[in-house]
Amino acid sequence: MAIYHCSIKIVGRSTGRSATSAAAYRAGVKIYDDELGELFDYSKKRGVVFSEVLLCPNAPEEFIDREKLWNSVQAIETQKNAQLCREIEVALPVELSREDQIRLVREYVKQNFTCSGMCADWA
């Protein structure tokens, strides 16, 4: 039986968080933060089975690189109360195969975010 879980959070400057750090953690990768001059290395994090960046039609192709995407977001959103990104965490049913889980999330992201003009970095 599937157990439902959903958590939505805003990553903002007012709370002292960075989009580069959040993206590196979620994807389990290394991302260098140009603004802070710091490398966020979560490459040894376990449990990340898939990650992908999906772009909206008008986004520059270079944003497929999550480091460029999130450093660009932070360079543009400079206000102290800027909302840099949103984290949406959802539990998927274990009854679905890994391929079905990935397909389901990819379709959801496309229909609800990239079709509305947003870039999405999901894992």
Largest sheet: 2 strands, antiparallel
Q: Mean of residue pLDDT?
A: 94
Could you tell me the strand content as a percent range? Answer: 15-25%
Spatial strand sequence of the major β-sheet: 1-5
In angstroms, what separates the terminal alpha carbons?
23 Å
> What's the shape?
globular
Instruction: Round the Cα radius of gyration to an integer and report it.
Output: 15 Å
Topology diagram in text:
Layout: E1 6-12, H1 19-27, E2 30-33, E3 38-41, E4 52-54, H2 66-76, E5 83-90, H3 98-112, E6 120-122
Antiparallel strand pairs: 1-5, 2-3, 4-6
Written account of the structure:
The structure is a single chain. The protein has three helices and six strands, in the order βαβββαβαβ. The protein is of the alpha+beta class and 123 residues long. The longest helix is centred in the last third of the chain and has 15 residues. It is globular, with a radius of gyration of 15 Å. The strands form three sheets. A two-stranded antiparallel sheet has the order 1-5. Strands 2-3 form a two-stranded antiparallel ribbon.
What does this entry show, briefly?
The protein is an alpha+beta fold. It has helices at 19-27, 66-76, 98-112, and strands spanning 6-12, 30-33, 38-41, 52-54, 83-90, 120-122.
